[in-house]
Amino acid sequence: MVKKEKLVINTSGKRKCALAKAVLKEGKGIVRINSKLLNTLQPEFLKLRIMEPLLIAGDVAKKVDISINVKSGGWQGQAEAARLAIARALARYDKKLKEKFLAYDRSLLVADTRRKEPYKPNDSKARAKRQKSYR
Known about the structure:
Elements: E1 8-15, E2 18-26, E3 31-33, E4 36-37, H1 44-57, E5 64-71, H2 75-93, H3 97-104
Parallel strand pairs: 3-5
Antiparallel strand pairs: 1-2, 2-5, 3-4
Helix pairs in contact: 1-2
């Protein structure tokens, strides 16, 4: 008797300081974020934002279980990182989804590399030094 190996896909997504690691396995369509079901996530608009790749994938998303571990950053960055990790995992699972994701929103597969500008000395903002007035 030959054992059939289950497919496991590991991906990650980053947004600002948030880091999300997703593990995709064949299953029944269950999505968990930090061991909590996606349906219980609050606020509602973040849940919808994370579900975008699942809705675009359609039936493919119902054949796999996705477990996401998100840490660091704020709630908005964590949601964007989780969204990116889910989309990347689904795109690796089904190659046809890559074109769908890119046509809908490029940020589903491509990370946003913008970062906060470093603080400049002798100033309250992250810009060049202010002029000094003597009179």
